[in-house]
Design goal:
Helix content: 25-40%
Number of helices: 6
Oligomer: single chain
Structural class: alpha/beta
Number of strands: 6
Length: 169
């Protein structure tokens, strides 16, 4: 599985943005990801020749995200030429906005997992607390309202039609 989270811009890059305070506050919004590199990796995966046990195995590498460091970890996920199924996961993989929309065209199937906005808000707040992003329930809910939920609204507004929709409750 290739996760979009590995393509977060590192803190050092966000610090160099024209408005670093906004970049950190909105971390997780589309502009805080290296979308071009994500698209490049998906294209490389799509063009990688599959190999059998009798053939030389090739690898591509994807970054992961370390929540303790709050930064991506380069080349942490090996992708073998022997993999028969690769799942590309992330909030913006079906976003109809350049360059994100290139990912959907490269995938064989497009799935969308949806949930009620209030359920999502509570889950996000809990995640923010567990990850140490916020230290109080009020702050965690506020972060969800100010950052995460607007990102979800953008996705729903600019969603590339999925092949499968899963309603998560």
């Amino acid at each position: 599985m290739i996760l979009q989270d590995g393509f977060h811009y590192p803190k050092r890059v966000l610090s160099a943005f024209p408005d670093p305070e906004l970049a950190f506050k909105r971390r997780g919004a589309p502009f805080t990801f290296d979308a071009e590199s994500f698209v490049t990796l998906v294209k490389a995966i799509k063009s990688m020749q599959m190999t059998t046990i009798k053939q030389r195995e090739e690898f591509l590498y994807a970054p992961s995200f370390d929540h303790a460091l709050k930064d991506p970890v380069p080349d942490a996920i090996p992708i073998s030429s022997r993999n028969r199924l690769i799942i590309i996961e992330g909030n913006y993989t079906l976003l109809d906005q350049k360059p994100w929309n290139e990912i959907a065209r490269l995938c064989e199937e497009k799935w969308f997992v949806d949930a009620d906005r209030e359920v999502v808000k509570l889950r996000l707040a809990q995640r923010h607390l567990l990850a140490g992003i916020e230290t109080s329930e009020l702050a965690a809910k506020q972060r969800a309202e100010e950052n995460d939920l607007p990102n979800g609204d953008l996705i729903r507004k600019m969603l590339i039609a999925p092949d499968v929709v899963i309603k998560n409750s």
